[in-house]
Prior knowledge:
- With 340 residues, the protein is of the alpha/beta class.
- The protein contains 15 helices and twelve strands.
- The mean pLDDT is 94.
Amino acid sequence: MNILFVYSNKNDPCTRKCSFELSKGLKKIGENSSEIYYQELSEQMIMDNDIIIFQRLGANGIIISLKDDYRIFDLIDKYYHSKKFVYMIDDLVIEEQSGLPKKFLNKCHGAICFNEQMKQHISLYCKKVYVMRTFVDINLIKKVRSNDLEGFNISWISTGAIGKELILDIINEINSRELDIKFITMSGSSFLNGVENVKSYRYVPFTKMIYLLNGTQILLNPAPNNDKDFKERMEKRTKKTITECLNCKTELKYALAGATNNIIISSKTVPFLYAIKNKKNGLLVEDDVNEWVNAIIKLYENEKLREKIIRYAYKDVNEHYSLKYASKKILEIFNEIIGI
């Protein structure tokens, strides 16, 4: 089977994971897979491949011109009965660019998303929707050297800075207790610059993110649905409620935590309720600062509990969230689509 991933934003983390990493994984299990920038997509490339995947086109910050829209849609129409076209999307942003993702969903034979809640939304526009869970490239993560931080360290990663007020309250409460705990924060965390016991980084590349995670013991994932700033931004962008948006996200941070020997403490959104068995491979808490602080201190004081949770989560991520596992899953989906 010849498989082609068509992407539009090379610098987007979703592209790195869902195009380049998946393509690499497919090659490793013996499939002929390649990637192409959408403006370089040609009729010959369509002819040379069996499955063409449009990875989040129109929904990742790159404005696609009407000329390119029509050119791609014309190719889909021309080869609709001889090739299979798939739209892949991993976030509830189907209203972007005047609903361009919905147009792709209507045009394609099928769609791939990353949880059942997302499937419910996009099934309105595409008859065949397939779910595969998120994944991480564990072998690549293993190659990133460890960050030998001293003491006990907690990480927080959030491009959209969701839960920033809660994070600040957590940090201030931990600092007030004079515990030997430091925080490493990444992406949308500039508001924490100058806060005691916090080292803040903005938009770090993937390998540096893993390097930093390799030096921390806990990864925090607050996702409160009463975050006013995030709520306003997401509801304006998606035309959906903040709860719908949060429930359509993936449990990627759980997979990252497990692969880097961190313990995740998370809000109880649908993806993390799916992935986490409370106190077995992570901790689930309500969005109350005292619950978060108590969970942190519980792990901080109990090394045996930390070791137990880390061991179980690492095994689970290796078995169910690896690139190899995801590649086999998506190949099953492709084989089913070929049979349509």
